[in-house]
Amino acid sequence: MSDSEYQDPLTRLNTTLNKSMAFMETSTKSPQNSKSNKAVKINTKSQPRNATKSVTSRKSILKKRNSNDENSEQTESLNVTVSNGNSSPKKVQVVSRPKSLKDLLRNENLAVDSTESTYGLEDLSDNEEIWLMNIPRTINPRELENQSLYLGDRSKFRIGEERYYAVNCEAPDSLTCVFNTSKPRKSYKTVNLKMAGTITVRRKLPGVLKIKPEPEERSKVPFPKNIKKRHPLFGACYKRDLI
């Protein structure tokens, strides 16, 4: 007879449990490839296939401008849309800054005036004082001939039926003026001039007539008639008290 036949039931139960625990330990020690515990191996020695192509295909950020592009940017106008709150958007045309006299004539739609200049650059000298005169639009500058003005003081004069007066104002430090040079090539020249003073001409308004208020007529109150005479102490029956 074998030894297992002589073992009691408790010993056999312990033996069976020990065997089952041994099987469980071996099963837990075996590696499990779970989805959450994945290892990734990085090979630093390997290189991408298109590495050289990516380097050679890069383009520089800086780009040379063509002369044609610069000229087109100078002459081209931009259309900008401006929206103000709830109002409908408005298109504003932004014109490039003029670089020459021809650009200025084209942008501003100016016309050439063939009027001869009466005062040129040759007429200026260091011994002369230059005064700036501001006049109303209603005055023709030629009508100021033979008029007497006191420089630095208030003066009065008449043109037609209108009366004017001139006052002295603060002069600017310098003023940019364009004068005729009487040369065929450069007929005009820009010069900064220092002003001796500024004269402002204004039209004299007619004086307001002073209206005197008319005196009010005082109405007289008629004195009442048939009034009894009264004594200040004894009243109307003062004769009886006086006897």
UniProtKB/TrEMBL annotation:
Residues covered by region (Disordered): 17-92
Polar residues bias: start-end ranges: 17-59, 74-90
Name by which UniProt lists this protein: Uncharacterized protein LOC107271335
Organism: Cephus cinctus (Wheat stem sawfly)
Lineage, opening ranks: Eukaryota, Metazoa, Ecdysozoa, Arthropoda, Hexapoda
Gene (name only): LOC107271335
